[in-house]
Design goal:
85% of the residues lie in helices and 0% in strands. By secondary structure, it is an all-alpha fold.
Length: 108
């Protein structure tokens, strides 16, 4: 019985490690320019399929989740789309900054 408990604990730990890796991967991936829900779903599906097929854990198969998220975004998002997203993000930051300055000046 003790062996069964240990193997169950090891399986739970492996599942938790996989969940943590996937969560970190998704968080980092969604912050990449041009990445939308469809890209995240596709990337997670690819990782999950690979790990299910091979039995590997994601860290062994793909390495650091942050680095793999950057590589995945570069692979799945066109450079044009990523650049457009960067420009839009920069514009939104500039608008918010001007809004904060206006509030400071107005004393709001």
């Amino acid at each position: 019985m003790a062996k069964k408990g240990r193997s169950t604990d090891a399986a739970k730990d492996k599942d938790k490690d996989r969940e943590r890796w996937l969560a970190r991967f998704q968080v980092r991936l969604v912050t990449q320019p041009g990445v939308d829900r469809a890209v995240v779903l596709q990337a997670v599906k690819e990782v999950t399929f690979h790990c299910d097929e091979t039995g590997e854990d994601p860290r062994t198969a793909f390495g650091d989740p942050d680095e793999y998220a950057v590589k995945t975004a570069a692979r799945l998002v066109s450079p044009e789309r990523a650049e457009r997203d960067r420009r839009q993000s920069g514009l939104l930051k500039a608008i918010k900054s001007v809004g904060r300055r206006a509030e400071d000046i107005a004393g709001i």
